[in-house]
Hints:
The chain is α/β, with parallel strands linked by helices and 418 residues long. It contains 18 helices and twelve strands. The chain is 38% helix and 13% strand. Helix 1 (32-41) packs across helix 8 and helix 8 packs across helix 9 (214-226). The radius of gyration is 26 Å and the shape is elongated. The two termini are 17 Å apart. Residues 4-12 have low confidence and may be disordered.
Amino acid sequence: MTLATETKTAAAQPATGPLAGIRIVDLSAVLTGPFATHMLADHGAEVIKVEAPGGDITRHIGHAPAPGMSSVFQHLNRNKRGIVLDLKQARGREVLFKLIRTADALIFNMRPEAMARLGLSYAEVRAQNPEIVYCGIVGFGEAGPYAGKPAYDDVIQGLTGIPDLVARASGGEPRFIPMAAADRIVGLYAANALTMALLHRARTGQGTAVEVPMFEAMAHFVMVEHMFYRSFDPPLGPATNPRPLDKNCKPHRTRDGYLCLLPYTAEHWHAMFDILGRPDLHDDPRFAQTSGRINEVEDLYALLDARLPEKDTAEWVALLTEADIPAMPMNRIEDVLDDPHLKAVGFFQKTPDADGGAFIHMAVPYGWADWPRTPPQPAPRQAEHSVAVLREIGIEDSEIAELLAAGIVRDGARTEDA
């Protein structure tokens, strides 16, 4: 069997960034885990995405010019290398163990019992690499009664009260917020946890297992805001922060559009009273303290709603900017793509792909003094780097050919024209 020769792709170029030199074996799929490793890959980590023969299902979300390369998949999996292994076969696990022995971390988001069935429990992985950071993203912590239950974004949003908050704020039916926010927020928790475990290992030489439960992480994220008076024992009042739940806490209509603003400090509100022609409110005892403004937020927002339609959005932005009050126009989603600030900082980057088209990536949102931003590298085609990675970990071509013939490994690398 002739093995495909991998074309030189940017994903195999030397990495730069604060995580350069870190190798992460990524068994995760769908959104949460891939978003975590997306953050790590963007900062120089070598992320090797291990897919089952069927591939990550996000490859097929929506239409795409190239099969299996949906926009969602490409945004979540850029800067990674991709291999396919059938881990249900013993030889597939043997190959994975060889890869794990070269790695700094392993991350997954399947249930722990599924990992155990594959022979990939922490004890089994640690036996192969005692210094490994073993990071599992699970639906629910193993110590609680929900342990082992399946979980996706909608389920976690519902359990953490987000649809209830939307209903209270809108006066309508409970609804999920229109994005997979729980998946991505938990992915950020996982990226932080894994990075901290790597720091611990660098200081002590000790690997560790890290559990990142979606429910607990998202509950932490939501309840920082909405435990509110229930944070105290005895409670000082109800749960939920009243400001974001007020019916007027929304973009405010102007004469020609909508304005998003947040007078927050006492100085902001006093300047706002002057701009609105209500200097009499300076001495109103209801608004003298932060606690009073929170309790009377409905009246404050009603004042904004009454006066803002008198001018165009641009006029209000100019006035409020002069007073140093945070205020900007409301963008539609389509407007974000043409936002002048994002254009000026090069946030959207059109990158040629291997199929003759282009894909619009988003720049890494952080700025590093010592690591200039580099162009994003395309997400891997399925099994694009299988042969190259197996060679790197010492597997001979004859054995690779056997693995390919048995369907344990797949080779998605392009063959060079003769």
